[in-house]
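User: For documentation purposes, I need each entry recorded in a consistent format: the amino acid sequence on its own, followed directly by the corresponding structure tokens. There are two entries in this batch. Please keep commentary to a minimum and don't merge the entries.

Assistant: Recorded as requested. Entry 1:
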Amino acid sequence: MKTIKKLFRKGLIASGAPIYSANIRWPHDEGFNDARTRAKTKGVSGIPDDRCFTLYKTASAVSNLEGDLAECGCRHGKSTRFILAGAGIESDKTIHIFDSFEGLSAPTENDRLPSGYTTWKSGALASSEDALINNLQMYEHMARIYKGWIPERFGEVAPRKFSMVHIDVDLYEPTLQSLEFFYERMTPRGVMISDDYGSLGCPGAKKAFDNFFADKPEALLELPSGQVIIVKA
């Protein structure tokens, strides 16, 4: 049996499949695994575990910084749950969630691949507000939901500061609009994360980050998970 497992593992490595060494700590993190178990119990699906861990630990890392949390694009709310789990159920932070609940807006030329093809179409990835509310049970006291197209309702949080902003909107225009609004409202050492930066199907998200930060002091740290992180100077 051990020989079969070793051969299987070698085959995965040779194929380039993402596997994690038994010596890597994060898959064994008790807090993260508790959050993962609770999410599975709720039937919450979506983004992979390595991305969820990044969100979980980032929210934990900024817990002592001034400022609320924000999420632009939430779909079913799996990422939201891990952000809130990282912040802690006793946290006094609020997460401000912005989503159309009608799927994506229409792609633009900036969302086209070099071939001219675009992965997305208007209305893709739609999910209901009720599904989000159901998936946020036990954290609902920490969440405020702003239904509408980005950036229509951003003005409602204009006076606030933010210690973490998660941007997962796949397309160029809403990604750029999210950066333009939240960047100046980030607390020093606060963190912005994009879920889509490293996705070959989301060239607009990468272009928006690259363009926006071209004249900014912050470095873009791309992760193997496909995410990108910036820490506000």
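Entry 2:
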Amino acid sequence: MADFELDPHEVRRAFDHAAASYDAHAVLQREVCDRLLERLDFMKLQPERVLDVGCGTGYGLAHLRERYAAAELCALDLAPAMLHAAQARLPQPHWTQRARALLSPHASPLTHTLCADMERLPLTVNSVNLLWSSLAMQWARDLDATIKGFHRVLAPGGLLVFATFGPDTLKELRTAFAAIDDAPHVNRFVDLHDIGDMLVHAGFSSPVMEMEMLTLTYADLKTLMRDLKGIGAHNAATSRKRGLLGKSAWAKLEQAYETQRLEGRLPATYEVIYGHAWVGDKMQREDGRQVIQFNIDQRRRKQGLA
């Protein structure tokens, strides 16, 4: 969004710093990834090449490697430390296996890592059959351009499967911060319908969009903020205030959040958007008249954290 531009250097720095602590705090991220993986059960696709955009520490990557054992797999992330963690999660082939993979087309394919920005994919046109992205697209500065880039690298008949966050994500924290000042403290997220429109305009066929609300609960605000810091998900807006909150501002923030306590716990809502879309014949002119299916699940799921 124009009034909330993300600083890519800060995003990269934050995720590099969080690579070592990420898995200990990524309860919600693993849950969303599992739900996104379940959606692949209904997709009739045996891809030759799979791209994991925003692979993080490789939780989803390992499952993709197991599911598509014969596919060439590429893990892409902006943060080098995340890529290192993802690579360490996978079984490491012996050097002889690597040599056979290079010499024989029938050898088990390797998994490659690529440190790059999802907005500028360094891949050739029509080079990917499945593009997978679990909770990474919300970090794109220009989501419209990013989705067009996804379409560019996907081959005809290819599939895009993703999960991202919607506008109501961390709404309680945003409300609490509004009691302190008007500066941006919580990242902004794109609406489900706008993402659907972007998919159509990029040339994808009949996007299917779903949404559900997931709620984590916390004993106190410090634990919530520790979780966000632990996964590298902090304010990366170019217009953000630098430095830590002072004691007075922190006290006001705690007080504001306390007004939202429910059943003895502090809620942290996440609006999770799931989507998938196919790539049709790229020689066919797109007229933008595809049908987008929306399935909005408003049921609030609660999961407490100690």
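Summary note for entry 2:
The beta strands are 49-53, 72-77, 111-115, 128-134, 154-165, 204-218, 266-279, 293-304.
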